[in-house]
Amino acid sequence: MTATSMDQLVSLCKRRGFIFQSNEIYGGLQGIYDYGPLGTELKNNLKRSWWNSMVYERDDIEGIDSSILTNPSVLKHSGHEDTFSDPLVDCKNCKSRLREDHITENKCPDCGSEDLTEPRPFNLMFKTNVGPIEDGSNFAYLRPETAQQIFTNFKNVMDSTPHHLPFGIAQLGKAFRNEITPRNFIFRVREFEQMELEFFVKPGEDEKWHKIWTDLRLKWWEDQGLDKKSIELFNVPQEELAHYSKATVDIMYKFPHGLEELEGIASRTDFDLGSHSKDQSDLNISAKVQENTKSNAKLAIQDQNTKEWFVPYVIEPSAGVERGFLAILNEAYSVEDLGEGKERTVLALKPHLSPIKAAVIPLKRNNEELVEKAKLLKNELQKQGLGRVLLENSGNIGKSYRRHDEIGTPMCVTVDFQSLEDGTVTIRDRDTMEQTRLNLDQTSEHFKQVINT
Questions:
Q1: 140-183: pLDDT as tens digits
Q2: Contact 414/428 with Cβ under 8 angstroms?
Q3: Whether the Cβ atoms of residue 428 and residue 411 lie closer than 8 Å to each other
Q4: Which helix (H) or strand (E) holds 89?
Q5: Which helix (H) or strand (E) is 121 found in, with range?
Q6: Considering the entire predicted model, what is its pTM?
Q7: Could you say which of 3.30.930.10, 3.40.50.2000, 3.40.630.30, 3.40.50.300 is the CATH number of the domain covering 6-84+124-329?
Q8: 3-state per-residue secondary structure call for 130-153
Q9: 52, 91, 220, 229: which has the highest count of C-beta atoms within 10 A?
Q10: What is the pLDDT of residues 216-240, one digit of tens each?
């Protein structure tokens, strides 16, 4: 099977309603995308799968949903104001603006010119005015990551839930980065969603938990349908680590444009909680914590035995929803040769991720008996609460099957004239294309088995 190209995925997304260029009728907005009917379902299913694995399936993790607008003091003491920038280079010939690390042999990748400016720092954070007067003093940042709001809510969560270490706080939500060069479709964009966990542990136990979470996250991605052969682990070299990181392992995936980061699992030590604590004089802080903040909280825990205060270490698995979306789409996409010059496009998504869980198809669209029986069956399957079930009343059974192969629907149920006689329907499997007859009263149970596989 040949490798999937980015052009194939972009074409599928536009043609079938997964992803559209934002503001396209006005020429679009670079690095910004809208999710269509099917893309919204797939994206929500991916996020739901992550949330289930993090919060519902564990008893040591709580979820929050924090604000996007962020007090500048938070990002000052987290180090983002000083370090969250990329080196920017301008090409004097074609006027392109480029990240320095995207330039090889001192040549512009767009025109080949060597007439480039010296690199200068470019702040990646979006700033916005807060309040009615724009005088430069009342502003906030659109959060560049969801992590900092987790850290600033650490004490609130600890005080309101009966948890002890180790425990975690999970969050799903939007983040914003003013990328110099958004590229590779939805891989690098300016507005995106993150799936982040901050898992707090005792100092000295961080290396053990770092390994545990790396293994757990690797297994989770495999459960979403990614092949082990498409994934590699990369231990980030010491000189390339973020300012807060003691160690980071990146889960790398073979995207259509090459091997790139899908998720990072970072050991952030006590950097963040220590940086946001008001009084550090009685805290045993090992990391390179910044000057005392103006916060009014001590983000620390008291040891019940020694009565000493300490700042927990944290392990952070952090993944981008869009990158996960793209990886899953790439892994599931294939074009099968059916012989005699025929082929079909298949999106072999895991059933729990499929945008449409089942399509109920009346054989003839204008036959009231068939359509009514199909509607009743559709409603019965929809009541199972397993995801969206669609009534596909197009009148062309062959085209309906091909469409649902292409959008990843695991099963199609056809209501035909035999259904009116003996109460059976045709069940078609997406992956094998096999068709079997099943009694109507058995269809719901079969549907559960398919989706929960």
A1: 999 999 999 999 999 999 999 988 899 999 999 999 998 888 88
A2: yes
A3: yes
A4: strand 85-90
A5: strand 120-123
A6: 0.91
A7: 3.30.930.10
A8: CCCCCCCCCEEEECCCCHHHHHHC
A9: 91
A10: 999 999 999 999 999 999 999 999 8
